[in-house]
Fold each of these.
Amino acid sequence: MDDAAEAHRAAVVSALLGVIGSAIVIVGFWRISGLWLRSAQTVAFLINGSALWWLYARLPPFSRSRSNAIFLLVLVPTAVMTWMIDDARAAHSASWVPYEPNKLSALTLAIIAPPGWWIGTVAISLFIGSALVHHVMLAEELRARMAAGEPVGVIAYGVFALVVLGFNQRGYALRSELEHERSEKLALERVARVAMALRDLANTPVQTLELVRQRLLTDDPQLRTQTERMGRALERLRRLNDILAPYQSAVVWDGEVTSVERQIRKTKARTSASEARRQT
Amino acid sequence: MTAVLLDDDTDLLEILAELLQERNCRCLLAQSLKELKALGPAALAADVAVLDINLGSGQPSGIDAYDWLLSQSFAGRLLFLTGHAHAHPLVARAERLNRAIVLDKPLDGQVLLDHILGVSAGSGAGSHVAP
């Protein structure tokens, strides 16, 4: 899978999780939701649903930059929703564990982020950053009612998310390297097949010419000069074998004939048939 | 001396036969296993058989000819002549047969003739002779 396809997959997963997350939030926090939170939930659900539908309708080849833009775009309504949920929970609970959706989102995004550091970093920063800003903006009496350990807790989640993102990006880099190696191996094998097929097909005519040269060897000095020239030319042709020999090991044989050889033979047969037709 | 020559290339067969006949070697020519079988007892009584390994796509190979000759109690020497790489599955099989020598095309004309006429030294059955 190339980077553009990975970016598309990441955008699809991001939008799908947005749809599922919005639905869970609607059900889970219905009781404490006011008009604004319900509106935000609906908007998040619709934006993620539309993005998901649009992404599913796309056919390859995918645009990497467009997929990355959608990956980030669908996170914005979710980030707004998580902010409002924390407000709602603060308003309706005597004490609460803050920024849970932000922490969960940061870790999830580290896992599903597309190839490229900056997209994942921006996505994680969106949720961790918004939690930190929210923390600063919360009234002192609300902060006093939240579970202890913030904002260190949310920062720790952010750091761990970046570590996970690092492993994820390393995985992408390794995969890309493997894909590159595989393509090179395939290309070499293709070249090797052509080289071996040409070498094998050329050897019989070269042997025939060598025997013709042998037949022409006489005491006639004029003819001897010509056969010596022919011998030198054949020697150079024979060196082709030495040049092409190292490719032998790269060829994977398909039965007793390589596919390239089969193709060359077909072409040779067609040429012979058309020559025969011309002669008749 | 009599030699049986099996190769799907007519030009190679004819020029090789001409050179051998100049050296008082009678030649029997065949371009396929079917033609070799058609030569009958004369082929089986030959002193040496020179077999091209690859006789064309979908055709019985020189190894099939080798098997047939042995099944008919052929007592002469057996030489495989091939233009294919050692890695080719048929050549690899031929190299494992201990009654035959594998000669790589293109060989120097005199060296090839010496091997066929049995005057070359140092190449016993089961060995591989490269250009």
Note: The two ends of chain A are 55 Å apart (CA to CA).
Amino acid sequence: MQTPPLTQASQRPVLSLRNVVKRYGSFQALHSVSLDVREGEVVAIIGPSGSGKSTLVRCIHQLEAIDAGAIYLDGELLGYKRVGDHLRAMGSADIARQRQQLGMVFQQFVLFPHMTVEENVMEGPMQVLGDKRSDALNRAHHLLKRVGLSDKLQSYPQQLSGGQQQRVAIARALAMRPRVMLFDEPTSALDPELVGEVLNVVTDLARAGKTMVVVTHEIAFAREAATRVIFMEAGRIVEEGEARVTLASPKTERLRTFLSRVM
Amino acid sequence: MDDDISQALHRTGPLRWIAGIALACITLQVLFFLVTNPRFEWPVVLKYLFAENILQGLGTTLLLTVIAMVVGTVIGTVAALALMSEFKPGRWAAQTYLWAFRGTPLLIQLIFWYNLAYLLPKLSLGLPFMAPVAEWSTNEVVTPFLAALLGLGLAEGAYMTEIVRAGLLSVDPRQYDAAKAIGMTPTRSFFRIVLPQAMRFIIPPTGNQVISMAKATALVSVIAMNDLLHSVQLIYNRTYEIVPLLMVAVFWYLCVITLLYALQSRLERHYSRGHRRNAEPVIETAVA
């Protein structure tokens, strides 16, 4: 695994959000959010709870339908296709195909409890990508070695600690060879002593040049691993910029207040 | 102060002694009753146990049980999905089905299907209100066997709907997200991720249903189907050896149900893999 230098982001946006709006009934979770993520960028999204960070990544993954605006992955509009003069909602098969390009890691790990660790990682490649069993197995073993779980291949999720489960979940997402990895507070459900092992894996991925969007409460991790940090509050992006600079000297009063509260 | 409780004796209370002796007495009494009472006529039982008519009746009972359960499970799964869907007409249809088929006695349903030709002499295929493309006489299509299957399968489906729905509700909704997250279509995630997990909760009550079904097939004798009980009745109506022939039926019903128990526990083991109670203990090994 070669490790290209940090912050070598190219200029072409892989992921692009344009004026994205999300409402739950009368509550507006996202107010016209726009964001570009370029190849190799690691974007950390921080902010108080209820600020719309998780909603944002769930919308990118089409686990939540957006109400206005548009999201593009590699220039392709997500969830809708143009038919004549109109945009029409895609069928579930097309949406499933688009989702293959995005890896998702959940706060609660959500492994498949009826499958062993290696079966969890092989499920996507075999069932969705149609890989041969031997190829999927090799890939699963390679990825599980990468997250430090070579000795847990035959274990069931229930037999693992939270940190181990989350590392399996990362391997499961990586097995689909996604263009972008999305993390929804990957360490929030972990005991404090297990946070480090998961963040180490995420940091290694960042160093390896994987394009990532990480919703996190770990400010130190955002400073170390992210190329860019985005601060959200009440469904809006309040401040964004290069991670170290922004976190060291915030421009807005609100980010300064937030950082003083969490650090 | 160097006691070690691993060497301690088990405690056996006096109540357990009394209960144990009482149970042993009852067991002996029942065995004694079964063996020595001449009215069981065990030689007669033995004579008819493997009689051709009886085995045919047993075959019908088994066949009806298996097919009706398969039909019921498929209908139940579809109806459960309809009940849980966002498509309102689908929900209404499923609710009406449950209401009608759980709400009426199975015996009436069987008689209804058997006499379908009275209400609907011809079955025809075609567009509504247009001349039919093809037509069949109902009496030829709906044989007693098909009437029995329709009756048992549709009634079973109504009960299975609720069992499948409960199973599906027991699966963590986040599992749907996780399946979507690796790019699965809804159909694939249902069969690969959701249903295998729901099976853990579907199988025990379904086991009950299969056993009820094996016995409920006895009802089909009213529509001239020759099931196990009916084949026994045909003989004792002629010979008046009622008790021994009923014992023949009891023997075969218990055989079938023993088989079903074994099948159920195997299925349960299969679908509970990965869950704590039967999982091997965690072996801590150093991270490589």
Note: Chain B touches chain A through 30 residues (CB under 8 Å).
Amino acid sequence: MILDIYKDSLEYSLQDGKTLLKLGLTLLFSFLIIPIFFVLGYYYRVLDTSTHGMINGDEKLPDFSDLTSMFVDGLKVFLVKLVYLLIPIIILIITRLIGGGASNLNSMAGNGIITVGTIISIILAIIFYFLSIMAVANMVAENGSIKAAFDFKGIFKIITNIGWLRYIGFYLGLIIIMLLISIVIGLIITLLWFAFGLVGALAGALGAKVGLILGLIIGFAVYLFFVYPYLTIFESRAVGLIYEPLPESDEQ
Amino acid sequence: MSVTDVIKESLHYPFYDKIKIVYFGILYAIMGICSTIISYLISNPLLHSNYASLANGTENVTTLTQSVNLIAAQIPSTNWYYVIILGIIALVVGILATGYDFRVIKKAINSENSLPKFNNFISMFIEGLKIIVVEIIYAILPIILLSIGFTIIGLGNGGSNATLLSIGSIICILGFLFTIFMVLVQLMAVNHMIANDGKISYAFKFKDVVKIIGKVSWIRYIGALFMLVIISIIIGFAANIIVSFISVGFMMLSPKNVLLGTIVATIIVGLFINPFLSLFTDRALGSLYNERVKDFDIDEKYIIN
Amino acid sequence: MKTKIRYLRQEEGISQQDLANKVDVTRQTINALENSRYNPSLILAYKITKALNCEYIEDVFILDEEKTEEEK
């Protein structure tokens, strides 16, 4: 089934080039901060479609209407992820403070506390990251209820239902796929880049420079306008499909 | 309605009537221009070498009042007239703007989807005054508490008296928490006043107001206000970025006219961003007041055209 | 795709895990099928139909007629 999820998500995100362009355009303006939340809002919408949809279903990509809703939804995703990230950070800070204070008594103990604390917070950060993904999915599936994002018991049950190892393996698989896509496209772009440079070199040194710069710009554009949006939708779709809501009544 | 829906509807609200935003914005633009010119008038002398003597330490300045008087003396006396006039203009316009806030909140409480009319400036002024009076009175106790705290800290300063220092700090922390609490109540108190025909007495029915917040649920109320703050910060940030581009653009065109560039930027922010944020916030605050009642069927009033 | 899998499975008195073992998939796959979260491959659909002692796929898997009409 997980392979089906990958396949569905790869095809789903490729449905409409115009949508990828729109997302890419939004990303381009992310220095204005507000567009970042539009992208997250679109992530929210794909999650919405996917958590209520089917593997191998024929759902369409969500559209870009009602930007204010997209902004608020994106903001909620951002805040939830932030809180989940904050907890390990706070623990890191606390251990540093305690360790620092303890060093006054016994520097070895102090350093020990800091090291242990740092390792624990890194591990916690990874765990909380995995949790936050399902937390956001749960929130979206429950119509944007923030309570659902912090329903730890429920989220735990959901991941247990999917299977902890299965879930982690699934997400690692996602990462590998995304890396592969990025690397392959990156290689192609680099080859094109060299090609541009060589062709430009036929026109002399200046031509070579122009060619290289053109190649760089095109490479950057392809990445921004196609690859990154594609991967965003891909991840959202996959996460939404593996999410399985808990049954109302007690089933197996 | 869920808090999210309140926020979304409030974000949509300013777009219902793009013309009235600009009217509202004119008030903010005026305030912005006034404060820009005021700071220009006050700061200009500081750039002159008259001030250098103070910087060199050749003047004997031992108290705060002495240094303030010295700085004040550097400012040409004609400027003071302008400063005072501009200040009064800004103050009056500010009260008018608050009056429009009053009307926006009223529309929200009555679940009407249009923007309030921009007329009858006398009553607008009075309505603004009412809100400001409520804000001031709600601020009195917190300010007193905080002042006590800071004074005690000041008394225990120089590390001489650690107990005074800690007592003062505790009082200050309590003071901050108390301030936050009073602000929460005051916002709902203003809603209560507006909902009851603007009678100021309703703003001070403390128990009733706290009960109303309880009906909305404190968590939802604080969550909504939190979202309001964050969204305002984000929009303000983004607006700042755009506006600084504009100012820098102006400065590059005519390096001498930093003032002009700043004023243009202030006008743009004032005409569009400030009114948008105010409309958004007021709409949300008013809608929150309506959340004290649980509707179990879908209300037509909440359906947006 | 809507399915009668849960109903038929309970009639046969077997658990999700049992059915999963019979058709060589994970329990989660059966769960997803029952919750209408998965459009399975034709082969898997046949296997499940057989495993539930039904003769025709249409007895187990229900095509959403209204939706296909809309798409036309």
Note: Chain C has a mean pLDDT of 85.
Amino acid sequence: MVRLTDLPEHDRNHLIAKNMTPLGPTPFVRMQKPLAHRRVALITTAGLHFRDDAVFDLMDASYRVIPGDLRGDELVMSHSSVNYDRSGFQQDLNVVFPIDRFRELVDEKVIGSLADQHFSFMGALVLPPKYEASARQVAAILRKDHVDTVFLTPV
Amino acid sequence: MSAISYFLELEGIQTTGISLVRENTECLKPPRFLWTSFPLGRPLGKPGDPAFQRRVIMAALGLLERESGPVLEDYPEDLPSVAADEVSVCPVNFSMPAADDSSWQVRLANERLLMQPWYSLSLRRRGRTTVGIAKAPIEELMAQVAQALDVPDIASVDLKSLKYALEDLKAFYQEALTAQPGNHDPQETARIMWHDTVLGRSMLAIHDRLAASESARIQAFARGIAPRDQAQNRSP
């Protein structure tokens, strides 16, 4: 369990040191249409990519593209941190990148559709403002694909 | 994660998702997150349990309907604890001969032979492997680790390449250790890999040599080799 009170002191202190101030006033987009009409992209900061993509560097705010028609057996993880569990991802991609669950939600018409492309970042060592350029680039690509909703997963 | 949601929402795209460290998310005040009590590395909680994963997703998607924010909601469901008799046992016996003075290379190569059938089983059962960032066969990666421990100054090796080799070897081991069907306790899997295997001992030896360096850059590599809890909690 990641309740800080349950962690050893060195881990607790490390995580508390990551407490940052907000980037600015919280932007807040209100729901424009029901879930069943939405187009959803997945974005993870788990450092996932294809075997022939460049691995993530130790400090890296760039992103990798994950096409919507990916097969589950193609992704590897080159996140620089060693302080989290990878065995869940090794057993089941969906525990980190729930693509099969979202495909099921589309099949059942719970959500409208999935994006043509999803995205992967590597969330470690990089300060929040450094993600601005790549995140805004991704936003432009998503808008072109008529994506209105993003589901985010960390590790 | 919070930063990406902030910039996407500034660009007019609505976001929701999972937070694993509530305190970090609380400070950054991103638009919408669902905090879960799951271990770091497992935002959807439970591998191989689509119904469990779906409940988490639906709770996070439900936050999209809120009229104002920031929203940071606690997900009410913890991971069910697994009874000791339900946990799959480690398939490999790692007990070492009392006096094994073989080289790292020999011991690692022998251990690979023990792991290989379980890795193969994992591959067959899951139809996938997450080994593949170092782009070299496991035997070569093992040799690279042994060589790093044999050179007088470990800082002279290509540390980035060594880290990628170790990540692939850890994936190879963890996939093998969890190859059997059933529940696997992530902490126990990690404990076995770091403290019962030759690979674990070799990684801790590499960590210790790097950590002893006076260079901050080399010390940072040490932190990228061994997790804090495994480096600090050595078995006697």
Note: Chain B touches chain A through 87 residues (CB under 8 Å).
